[in-house]
Amino acid sequence: MKRKHTAPSPRRRKKSNRAIWLLVAFLAVFMMVLVSAAVVKIARQHRQSGNEQESGKQTVSQTEMSPSVSQAETDQTESRRGADPSVSQETVEPSEVSQPESDPDTGGDSEQGKNLYKPAEETEKSENSFEESDTDNSAGRSAENILAGMTLEEKVYQLFIVTQEQLTGVSKVTQSGETTRESLKNKPVGGIVYFAPNLVSRGQCAEMIGNVQSYSELGLFIAVDEEGGTVARLGNNRDMGTTSFPAMGKIGDSGDAAQAYNVGYTIGTEIAELGFNLDFAPVADVNSNPANTVIGTRAFSSDPEVAAGMVAACVEGFRDSGILCSLKHFPGHGDTYADSHYGEAETLKSLEQLRECELLPFTAGIDAGAPFIMVGHITAPNIIKEPVPASLSHELITGLLREELGYTGLVITDSMMMQAITDQYSSGEAAVKAIQAGVDIILMPEDLESAVSGVLNALSAGDITEGRIDESVLRVLEAKISSGIIAG
User: In angstroms, how far is CA 428 from the centroid of its own chain?
Assistant: First the structure.
């Protein structure tokens, strides 16, 4: 018998619908709780991750502030010179060094590196970096701090500027590599001077200088002879892309000191782009002897007043370009007959005659703020009691230049490879006599190691005091700091 189905009553349908809606509402609330819990969990994980990252940053920061011993030594080295020597090079075996008859402007080195030295104009400088100021005072304090951490041997090496050939024992250097790096580590000289055979092209030059600069703990004076005229290691090479100026005698003939300023400013700006920071110019000699075989139109004029005005303007041009410059050849090479490259050169003038003529351009250059003065190998029998070249004369360097003329900058010798020196003195003897006379920097001794050993032996014997060495090293460091070679 089949059961008879009857339709639910309206009351029962109403109860059934209510139950369904209650179930739906319950499920909705349950889903909202689950979603909220998930959101809270995700947020909590995100905060935890952020805290871990921040903690990681703090750990890294603390690690960077507390390097390992080897890294600390590296950082200490870099803080002394303000550079980043990150270039590795392959070593090239040195060949025999060839030495020319006069200027040692030939020599070679190893594979090119990749660090380019920041030229002078890329570092901030005061408008007049060579004049006394608060900056110079702070440079002095920093220099004293650096000096306090130097060994005696390091101090002595700072008093030499040499060719890269002399430094490395490699012939015809056009690159700076591992041989140069190791040589600078063992012989931390104060600077390097380059000649025409070293300078092939702009890129090669900048890379060579950039690498050698990066290898030095205390930074290097990077020098060149760029006077204009015939003495222009860069300007006479079209591949270098620098301005070729006429002889300074023509600039002097114009009577326009603004042209001399332009020479200094243009040369300074252009060589800075290649990494140089020191130019052995301008010539402050007076062309007072028509028979002179070495100066001639390298000098601005035969009139000392004209020469003085031109020299001062040229120094100001170099100063405004941010490049160090050097007056030369104190106390005046313009009246000599002989060339000190090939033997003794003398002036027969009295001190009073020098004051009236030869010294005027030097005085003007000093007043303009010349940071370097190069002393020539000129004998002056009517002035110097001891028969020695001016570069070895205490009477001329300390007595005349320092005390009478009031010069407080750096004193550098002319090349000590010239026969006026090598015919009479060993490298050690010449270096010792120069320092005793008041010289700060010895340029290109015939034998660097012998010269350094001679000075160290003189220190041991008491012939030179460490205080005398410190005096010159402080001047070197102050000049490097003031000009941005060492970061202040």
Answer: 26
- Active-site position among 341, 367, 423, 463: 341
Burial of 31 (0-12, 13-18, 19+ CB in 10 A): exposed
Q: Which two tokens stand for residue 457?
A: 């032996």
64: in domain: no
Residue 22: predicted pLDDT: 66
147 and 470 in contact (C-beta within 8 Å)? yes
The CATH number assigned to the domain holding 192 equals: 3.20.20.300
Query: Is-contact 378 331, C-beta < 8 A?
Result: yes
Which residue in 103, 109, 335, 414 is the catalytic one? 414
The secondary structure element, H or E, covering residue 412 is strand 410-413
Burial class (CB in 10 A: 0-12, 13-18, 19+), 417: buried
Cα 408 to Cα 367: distance, rounded to the nearest angstrom = 11
For the chain, state the CA radius of gyration.
Answer: 35
Domain of residue 443, residue span: 120-482
Confidence label for 300 from pLDDT (cuts 50, 70 and 90): very high
Q: Catalytic annotation on 103?
A: no
Give the bridge partners for 31, in sequence order.
Answer: none
Domain count across the chain: 1
Spatial CA neighbour of 217 closest among 120, 271, 151: 151
Do 373 and 409 form a contact (C-beta atoms < 8 A)?
A: yes
Structure tokens at 4: 């008879």
Q: What is the pLDDT of residue 291?
A: 85
d(CA 344, CA 389): 8
Buried b (16+ CB within 10 A) or exposed e, 189-214: bbbbbbbbbbbeebebbbbbbbbbbb
Return the residue matching tokens 């005005």: 309
pLDDT tier at 410 (50, 70, 90 boundaries)?
very high
Bridge partners, 289 (sequence order): none
Check if 320 is active-site: no
In this predicted structure, what is the pLDDT of residue 341? 72
> What whole-number distance in Å separates Cα of residue 461 and Cα of residue 247?
47
Q: Where would I find the beta strands (DSSP E) of 308-440?
A: 324-330, 345-346, 372-375, 378-379, 410-413
The verdict on residue 62 lying in a domain is: no
